[in-house]
Design goal:
This protein has 562 residues and is an alpha+beta fold. It folds into three domains: 3-132 and 464-561, no CATH class; 135-251, no CATH class; 295-425, no CATH class. 52% of the residues lie in helices and 24% in strands. The chain is built from 15 helices and 14 strands. Helix 1 packs across helix 2 (44-57), helix 5 (94-132) runs antiparallel to helix 13 (449-496) and helix 13 (449-496) runs parallel beside helix 15.
Length: 562
């Protein structure tokens, strides 16, 4: 084995590869820091740290290019100096000349596979956490700079924005059970909502003042945006409507959560076995649990409203937990319609709601009709019954013969829950996603539109997760193996295209490297699509290496023939 020749080749290759790799990493890392720097997310010290953290994450992209560049230049120079011819005359085969590159490429491939699966995800996460920073400061900074804050289908603009402290008046206006963690106050606010299916504006809101309340919920920041003095605009119908106030809820973006790029091989393997650990699957599971819990609550209310076998009127018993007021609802007629129960009275038997507190009846309402809606929010996943009554008469506790205390066209009761009953939401949310999907297939729940929609969303997200894990693992392996191929390919092309300029040879190797990177990422995108076959996505991921291997084999065969 020509040890001196191998060390001679490896020394030149490693020197050129280290220099080119350092230049590529610095250029790419600085380029990646431009946008967060412009957005004001990085201080000068943080910029330096961000560049250092970004460099290792770019290894999987930069290393194949620098490897191809180094082998091309070294073997082009050896060819131009007739060193390749001298080696051949001395009985050294082309395979022996390529042996140091094969050994180096094998080491690089194994090292890159290890780094991309165990080290790079951790560094990638640290770099992303720097620009994610404080969600509140990012939101305020964007609004203060006169730029809009965009998240999913919501766009917010404000003339002024600053962070304030929650006051008792704010908490009362908010109407939530818990105080917010932080508050952002805005003046001159415009909010636009977009229809995700049509990408058109579905509604616009203009408000003199707005208060954004931020909560931490399951390691995620949620915003309740209260708009005051609102003018609402429907772009399709061209309708302007003035309302006192309105509110919107949405989560703040968290780039790190739910991205398999930030997960190591062990975390990916664990995630494939316990899908509920994935943020996006957990969110869809929560939505399905909320939909099943809401359907369960509606069915229980339906059952309680039905007339008993004795002829006695059925009573739906609910409670307002904030005031400890108990309500009993009776209705001679009712019909179920999607997420609501329509109540209807007769001439002699109106809809009646009796309310009591501390074991004593405090009064009751009589209404011509009413409706019971069940809803939930991310801050209140436990379903709540919203009761609205039409043409209402309020009576004191004695009887319906007592004087009418008030008459209203309509009234709305506070959010109600079941009294002294285990949380139905927790019953479903404590199940695993596969168990919840099995439950949702039951005819009792699966026939409702909301449950079907949440079921399809959870099942689709789980399939996408498995495909994303496969794409990430195969993509990392393919990228590592391509480093070996392009390193050897650069040398083979240099020896085959003797007489050509080194940059011409490298341009061809560069294009093949670019094709390899593009096909790996295209394969991950194909795998992520639910309408494509898993095998097709895996084939696209590895097609770049198959192409490189084919070109390498054909070129080496033609080289040996000469």
């Amino acid at each position: 084995m020509p040890i001196r020749l191998y060390s001679y080749i490896l020394k030149d290759v490693l020197k050129l590869m280290a220099l080119s790799l350092a230049v590529l990493l610095v250029v790419v890392s600085v380029g990646a820091s431009i946008k967060p720097l412009i957005d004001g997310l990085l201080s000068p010290l943080a910029l330096f740290k961000f560049v250092l953290l970004t460099m290792p994450t770019m290894l999987q992209f930069a290393l194949p290019y620098s490897a191809a560049f180094a082998s091309t230049l070294v073997y082009s120079r050896m060819t131009a100096d007739n060193e390749i011819v001298a080696c051949a005359a001395g009985g050294i085969s082309y395979l022996s000349l390529l042996m140091p590159l094969l050994m180096l490429g094998l080491v690089l491939a194994i090292g890159l596979f290890f780094l991309s699966n165990w080290m790079i995800p951790l560094v990638y996460k640290s770099a992303s956490q720097m620009i994610e920073r404080d969600a509140v400061k990012v939101l305020v900074q964007q609004l203060e700079q006169g730029r809009s804050f965009r998240h999913r289908d919501i766009v917010i603009y404000a003339d002024q924005a600053w962070e304030g402290k929650p006051t008792p008046q704010m908490i009362d206006r908010m109407g939530e059970d818990r105080a917010p963690d932080r508050v952002i106050i805005m003046q001159g606010v415009a909010v636009s909502k977009t229809d995700r299916k049509t990408s058109r504006q579905s509604s616009e809101f203009f408000a003199k003042r707005a208060e954004a309340f931020l909560y931490k919920l399951r390691d995620e920041s949620w915003v309740t945006l209260n708009l005051m003095g609102v003018i609402s605009i429907d772009p399709d119908a061209n309708i302007h409507l003035s309302v006192d106030d309105t509110s919107l809820q949405f989560p703040l973006p968290r780039p790190i959560q739910g991205d398999t790029r930030f997960l190591t091989f062990d975390e990916l393997r664990l995630l494939s076995q316990e899908v509920d650990l994935y943020d996006k699957v957990h969110r869809r599971k929560t939505e399905l649990a909320e939909a099943i819990a809401a359907e369960s609550m509606l069915r229980i209310i339906e059952t309680e409203l039905q007339t008993r076998e004795t002829g006695a009127a059925g009573r739906a018993k609910l409670v307002d937990t904030s005031s400890a007021t108990h309500y009993e609802i009776t209705s001679p007629q009712f019909t179920r319609q999607d997420k609501r129960i329509n109540l209807a009275g007769t001439d002699d038997r109106p809809v009646q709601v009796q309310f009591s507190r501390d074991g004593l009846i405090r009064g009751f309402y009589q209404a011509r009709a009413g409706v019971i809606k069940v809803d939930s929010t991310p801050l209140h996943p436990e379903p709540r019954a919203m009761v609205e009554l039409v043409e209402v008469r309020a009576y004191s506790a004695e009887s319906a013969d007592s004087p009418i205390l008030a008459e209203k066209k309509a009234t709305t009761l506070p959010p109600l829950r079941f009294p002294q009953r285990k949380s139905s939401y927790e019953t479903f949310a404590n199940r695993t996603s596969p168990e919840l999907l099995e439950l949702a297939r039951d005819e009792k729940y699966g026939q409702t539109p909301d449950v079907r929609k949440a079921y399809n969303a959870l099942a689709g997200r789980m399939r996408k997760l498995i495909r994303s894990i496969l794409g990430r693992i195969h993509g990392r392996a393919a990228s590592a193996f391509s480093c070996l191929l392009v390193l050897v390919l650069g040398a083979v092309l240099s020896m085959k295209m003797r007489g050509a300029m080194p940059l011409t040879v490298y341009f061809l190797a560069f294009m093949l490297c670019t094709l390899s990177v593009a096909l790996v990422h295209s394969g991950h995108s194909v795998l992520y699509r639910l309408d494509s076959r898993i095998g097709a996505g895996v084939l696209v991921v590895w097609s770049s290496n198959i192409t490189l291997l084919t070109i390498l084999g054909v070129t080496y065969w033609r080289l040996c023939r000469n």
